[in-house]
Amino acid sequence: MAANKKLLVLAGDGIGPEVMGEVKRVAAWMGSQRAVGFDIDEALVGGCSIDANGVPVTDATMDKAMTVDAVLLGAVGGPKWDGVDFSIRPEAGLLRLRKDMELFANLRPALVYPALADASSLKREIVEGLDILIVRELTGGVYFGEPRGITDLGNGERRGINTQVYTTSEIRRVAAVAFELARKRGNRLCSVEKMNVMESGRLWREEVTRLHQEQYSDVQLSHMLADNCAMQLVRNPKQFDVIVTDNLFGDMLSDEAAMLTGSLGMLPSASLGAPDAAGRRKALYEPVHGSAPDIAGQGKANPIATLLSFAMMLRYSFDLGTEADLIEGAVSDVLDRGIRTADIAGTGAAQLVSTGDMGTAILEAMAQRSR
Ligand SMILES: NC(=O)c1ccc[n+]([C@@H]2O[C@H](COP(=O)([O-])OP(=O)(O)OC[C@H]3O[C@@H](n4cnc5c(N)ncnc54)[C@H](O)[C@@H]3O)[C@@H](O)[C@H]2O)c1
Ligand SMILES: CC(C)[C@H](C(=O)O)[C@@H](O)C(=O)O
Ligand SMILES: [Mg+2]
C-alpha cells in the first residue's frame, strides 16, 4: 500500500471549522474504504491564531505548511478581529501562506451542476452547462506591491498607497499554467487586464501575446479588458473556457463566477506553485468563499466548495482522478436528489439540510457509487 499522504489542515475561523469537519469525514472514509490514507496534522490560521498566538500564522505552522504534501484551508477572518493591527489581521496569515509557499497559480473552476441551473440568480439558459476555469495570479500585483501603507501628509490629510506591480516572469509563469490547462480543456484562453489604463496591464498583454507566439500558438487566445469581462460573465458566460488574470481582478471575477453556479458555497480552488525537480508542486486547497460570519455556528454553511477543493487536491497533488471523480459524482447525485443547503435551495430543493447532513448525504452517495 502507498505511504499515507501528509496533510496540514488549517480550518480557520467562522464556518471554516464547520465545512472542514465534513472534509475530515471524507478523508477518513477514503482511508478506510479506498486505501487512500492521510496523516492529518492540524494548526491554527487567521483570527483563531491571533487569539492563541498573537499572530495570524506562526513560524512553526509555516514550517509545517512547507513540508507537507498538501495544505487544506477553511476560511479566515471575521468582525471579531476588525480592530487588530492591519499587519496582523487574519487575512495576512493566508497571504503569507500563499506568498511564502510561492503559490502563484490559483485555479478557480466554476461549474454549473445540472440540478442547480435554477439556483443561479441568472436565467437557466445563460448558465446551464457552464464549465469555465479562472486562473488567478496569486503572489503578485497590488496585493503585494511596494510601496504600500498609510502616511500622514501633515496637513490634516492622510494617503493610502498600494502598488500594482508585475514582472515579465510573473506574467509568463501564470500564463503558461493557463495555456497548459486550456490545452486539456476547450483549448481557448482569454487573458484579462486593463491595458487601456495601467502599464502593468500593457505589459501583461504583451507578455501573454509573446508567450502565445513562442510556445502556445495552437491555443486560441483572446484578450479582454477586465470591466468588459465582468459584464460578459453575466451576459454570456459560456463564451469562456479558461480566463487568466491578475490577483485583484481574479479575486473579483471569481466571486462573480461563483454566482453563476448558484452560490459562493459551490466554488473550490487550488493554489499551486512551480514543480520541483521531482515534479512535485507545493499546493494549498481552499474554497473561494470566506468565513461567512453571518451564518457561522448555525450549521447552515454549504460544505461542497471545501469538499470539491479536497477533490481538486486528490487530482492535482496526488493524481487520484478516480477518487476525485467519486466525490464530484457524489455531489452531483446528491444535488440531483434535491438535497440542498439553504444557499442553493433555489426552486428545486426537495430537502433542506444542515452542513453535517449534506456531508452525510455525500458520503452515502460515495459509498453507493463505489459498490
Ligand atoms: N479564503 C478566505 O479565507 C476568505 C475568502 C473571502 C473572504 N474572507 C474573509 O471572510 C470574512 C467575511 O467576508 P465576506 O462576508 O465578504 O465574504 P464571505 O465569502 O465570507 O461571505 C459572503 C456571503 O456568502 C455567504 N457564504 C459564503 N460561503 C458560504 C457557504 N459555504 N455556504 C453558504 N453561504 C456562504 C455568506 O453567508 C455571505 O452572505 C472577511 O473577514 C473576509 O476577509 C476569507
Ligand atoms: C481573504 C482574502 C485575503 C482573499 C483574497 O482577497 O485573496 C479572499 O477574498 C479570496 O478570494 O481568497
Ligand atoms: Mg475573494
Automatic annotation (TrEMBL):
Residues flagged as site, Important for catalysis: Y143, K194
UniProt KW Amino-acid biosynthesis keyword: yes
Keyword Oxidoreductase in record: yes
Entry-linked Pfam families: Iso_dh
Catalysis: reaction(s): (2R,3S)-3-isopropylmalate + NAD(+) = 4-methyl-2-oxopentanoate + CO2 + NADH
Keyword annotations: Amino-acid biosynthesis, Branched-chain amino acid biosynthesis, Cytoplasm, Leucine biosynthesis, Magnesium, Manganese, Metal-binding, NAD, Oxidoreductase
Binding sites annotated in the UniProt record for NAD(+): 78-91, 290-302
Membrane-spanning intervals of the chain: none
Main location: cytoplasm
Assigned EC number: 1.1.1.85
Annotated positions binding substrate: R98, R108, R136, D227
Cofactor annotation: Mg(2+); Mn(2+)
Enzyme class: oxidoreductase
Cofactor note: Binds 1 Mg(2+) or Mn(2+) ion per subunit.
One Gene Ontology term of the molecular function aspect: 3-isopropylmalate dehydrogenase activity
Residues of the Isopropylmalate dehydrogenase-like domain: 6-362
Pathway connected to this protein: Amino-acid biosynthesis; L-leucine biosynthesis; L-leucine from 3-methyl-2-oxobutanoate: step 3/4
Location(s) in or outside the cell: Cytoplasm
Binding positions for Mg(2+) per the UniProt entry: D227, D251, D255
UniProt-listed HAMAP family: LeuB_type1
PANTHER family: 3-ISOPROPYLMALATE DEHYDROGENASE
Assembly mode: Homodimer.
Protein purpose: Catalyzes the oxidation of 3-carboxy-2-hydroxy-4-methylpentanoate (3-isopropylmalate) to 3-carboxy-4-methyl-2-oxopentanoate. The product decarboxylates to 4-methyl-2 oxopentanoate.
Membership in a protein family: Belongs to the isocitrate and isopropylmalate dehydrogenases family. LeuB type 1 subfamily.
Protein name (database record): 3-isopropylmalate dehydrogenase
Species the sequence originates in: Inquilinus ginsengisoli
